[in-house]
Amino acid sequence: MMAGRLRILLLLFEFTFIFAATLNLVTPKCPVGDYENKDGICCNKCPAGFKLVAECHSEGHRSNCTPCPARQFSDQINNAFQCRKCKTCRAARNEVEVSPCRAAQNTICGCKVGYYKNHIDSETVECLKCSRCKPDETEEHACTRERDTVCGCKENFYRVRNKCEPCRNCTTGCSQHCMLEVATEGERQPGPEPKNHLLINLVAGSVVVVLVLLALVVLVTFLATKRFTKKKMPTLSSQTSEVSVESGKHLLIYAEGPPQSICLKAAAQNPVGELELSKLPDCVPLEIKIPELIYAVLDLVPVLQVKQLVRCLGVKDTEIERAEMDHRSCREAHYQMLRVWAQKGSQELGGGRGEMLHRPLLEELLDKLRQMHLGRAAEELETKYSIQ
């Protein structure tokens, strides 16, 4: 019995000892703001912005602290011998310095304009470019340095898988496509008609009205034309009957020039005033253009015989020499020689009609060609100008 009591007392003593030891371990030895050094002495910590230089050596003494050097900081009370290095904002990461580094505060970096801060974790951030709303979206909140742009769907659009799709049926955000419930009938009626349907109806109605008006205009025009034609037909018939078969006029064909080239004939008109061209005489005055004749002669007569021809036609040597001096080209000089002959002959016969040659001069030319044994050239000219 006594042995049992002794065991119980022993257990209680051990439990008390263990509890006291545990309580002693949990209870801090040094006050708040101090720390226990390796010698077991409670020393004070350095405030923010300072670092420890030397620990206290005994109770009641203070630790030796010094401010953090440039580009270093310490933002908490500490017993560290080194301050932390300040952060550098990187432009390559689209960062800008918001607040510079101080002894008790690290550098504060932010995102430049057009970028926002995206938190990768509790300590790491990155600057991302602000999003732009798509054509079918509207901007609900502008982008800031702390938050990206917030976009919402436009009217008559709804979001599906991060995309705005046009409303086609009754879904969330597309209430205009939903049926309206009618409590009295218990039926569902269609919602308001879209505006585009109303516009289509207006256009269709306008087209129908225009077509009807055009049809009326065409009908009225046709009836008026038909009535006017009926009234005019009797008048035309009476005018036609008054035309006399005996009435006629004589057409006088007159041409200037010598009597040999003039042909005067009279032709009676038929009852309707048309000439019977088939009954006109085959009489055409002979007109020979000087330039055309000269070029024809130059094509037929050999070059070496042209001077002989113009001398036979009465052109003087002085006129031949003048033509050669005025025109270096042989053909142009020969042309000028023959032209002198043609103009002189026309003047002697009493004047010609501009560039036209008299028939006697042509006959003289043909005779001279035959005298020079150029009968082939004479025949060609006779054929060209229909001379028998």
From TrEMBL:
PROSITE patterns: DEATH_DOMAIN, TNFR_NGFR_1, TNFR_NGFR_2. It comes from the Eukaryota. GO terms for cellular component: membrane raft; receptor complex. GO terms for molecular function: tumor necrosis factor binding; tumor necrosis factor receptor activity. Disulfide bonds join 68-83, 130-143, 133-151. Residues 291-385 form the Death domain. Residues 1-20 form the signal peptide. Residues 67-109, 110-151 form the TNFR-Cys domain. GO terms for biological process: apoptotic process; inflammatory response. Gene3D superfamilies: Death Domain, Fas, Tumor Necrosis Factor Receptor, subunit A, domain 2. Keywords: Apoptosis, Disulfide bond, Glycoprotein, Membrane, Repeat, Signal, Transmembrane, Transmembrane helix. SMART domains: DEATH, TNFR. It holds the Pfam family TNFR_c6. InterPro entries: DEATH-like_dom_sf (IPR011029), Death_dom (IPR000488), TNFR/NGFR_Cys_rich_reg (IPR001368), TNFRSF1A (IPR052493), TNFRSF1A_death (IPR033994). TNFR-Cys repeats lie at residues 67-109, 110-151. The keyword Disulfide bond applies. PANTHER family: TUMOR NECROSIS FACTOR RECEPTOR SUPERFAMILY MEMBER 1A. This is Transcript variant X1. It comes from Nothobranchius furzeri. The gene is tnfrsf1a.
